[in-house]
Write a structure and sequence with these properties.
Layout lengths: L2 H5 L2 H8 L8 H9 L3 H4 L2 H8 L3 H10 L5 H14 L2 H4 L2 H5 L2 H21 L5 H10 L3 E5 L2 H14 L5 E4 L6 H5 L7 E6 L5 H12 L3 E6 L12 E4 L12 H18 L1 H17 L5
Parallel strand pairs: 1-2, 1-3, 3-4, 4-5
Helix pairs in contact: 3-5, 5-6, 10-15, 11-15, 12-15, 15-16
Length: about 290
Amino acid sequence: MTPDTRDQSIEARIRARYDHLADSERPLADLILSFPGQVASYSATELAALAGVSKAAASRLVKKIGFESYEEMRRIAREGQGWGSPHYLNSPAFERRPFDDALQAHIACETENIRATLSALQPSMSEIVAAMATATRIGCVGFRRSRIVADYLRWSLVQIRQNVSMLPPAGETISEALSEFDPADLIVAVGLRRRIPLLAKALSAFHARGVRVLLIADSTAGSLAASATWFLPCEGRSASPFDSDIAAISVAHFLSSSLASTLGQAARARMQAVEQSLAALGELSD
């Protein structure tokens, strides 16, 4: 979904014209405002029936809010789902699902995400881990929910090697960090769905400087792959309106574990030093 399309979202159009809608049209408008993704899932006739209005009322609503056809409105709803908006991925069926059913669906989906992602890891994994072992510096980059995964990876890596940082550091911009990295370094970027434009610009800039880039992202990040040396795609399907990050976390865990194994004694020495510092400062209670 592009910024221009989001400015003309279905909900924004309905809200702008809501006071001018007929009583026969408002039940459908209310349904779409609550669950806009339903437009992508049902025909005009089916959605009208769900709202308890006539197909004629649905046709009038589509025209009143500025769409040429229901298919045009459906296209925007599909873009909203493809863009990963939880509001567009939500549904009445999800809200009505019994707890036990929801739990089983969650377990099945999370398990499959991990299985599908890890079983498809590229043969270049050994090359990636070697690069992580020999890079002078490693910079971890991620914004919004991607930062959670990037920060987890950074935390794991600092246990086993030096010179690992989150980019940008607090109080700085990515441009300031960019000037410090060169081809001897490595950038690990996490780019899960609903990325900010700065990520693509930053990766392009690092690539132009000859810095190696490892991209951990879902399949919608294909356009970023041109700036990446390696791309590890992660499944993010979910049984809820929220994308799943579990596969990306698992990839980060496997990378750090593999690096610890590769570094061997050096990693053990680093872990021992960290534990000695924690004990000396008494920073952990138990």
